[in-house]
Amino acid sequence: MRARAQPLRILPARGEGDHAAQPRGAGGGSSGQRPILPARGEGDRAKRGGGGSSSGQRPAVDTARRLRKQMSLPEVLLWRELRKRPAGLKFRRQHAVAPYVADFYCAQAHLVVEVDGAAHEGTGAERDLLRDASLEERGMTVLHVAASEILADPVSVTSWIAERATNPLHHAAQRRGPPPRKRGGSPDAPLRTGD
């Protein structure tokens, strides 16, 4: 014989003692009863990947998620190499740096890698210049790599990127440090131009 399913019950609010539990809907509203909470993942807010709607306040993140699914062939080939963590560096693909989305980003080196292809010609070049200036103001270095170079040899392009990330050519000047010394060791010594 089958056991009958019990109707769902609403528990009494805290501090009301041990009143008899009533079947769902028999209480007549919110008269001191605890509300039934939605099951895990059914809430109206997104919490750690569960339920909810898209992040309308972070359009760069939504764009980055969409772009990760629509990567071009050069980006896929480069990602295959960068995800192996060359020189111990962790790269992220299609990373949101509001309001922009970088093709690849290394947080350790503050390095943005952009794959340049047909989309970066014409009016796209003007946007690239504005984006590069904005990212460099934030202390990031931007590297541009031609898609044709990646298609030809993604391994050597990856090693070049890792070399630039670990040994940058120029370091940013310290903001509150002393001014650079003139040749000759003393800050007051004149520059020697020729012998």
Your description of this structure?
It contains 5 helices and 6 strands. A 4-stranded mixed β-sheet has the order 3-4-5-6, sandwiched between helices. The model is unreliable at 18-28 (pLDDT under 50). The chain has a domain at 71-166: VSR Endonuclease (Endonuclease, Chain A, 3-Layer(aba) Sandwich). Helix 2 packs across helix 5. The protein has helices at residues 59-68, 73-82, 123-137, 147-152, 154-166, and strands at 9-10, 22-23, 92-97, 100-106, 111-116, 141-146. It has 195 residues and is of the alpha+beta class. A hairpin with a 2-residue loop joins strand 3 (92-97) and strand 4. Helices cover 28% and strands 15% of the residues.
Oligomer: single chain
What fold name stands as the CATH topology of the domain at 71-166?
Endonuclease, Chain A
User: What structural class results from the helix and strand content?
Assistant: alpha+beta
Helix content: 25-40%
- What is the terminal separation in angstroms? 109 Å
Placed side by side, the strands forming the largest sheet appear as 3-4-5-6
Helix tally equals: 5
What would you say the CATH architecture of the domain at 71-166 is? 3-Layer(aba) Sandwich
Mean pLDDT across every amino acid position? 74
- Strand tally, please? 6
Specify the CATH class of the domain at 71-166: Alpha Beta
Low-confidence stretches: 18-28
* H/E topology pattern: EEHHEEEHEHH
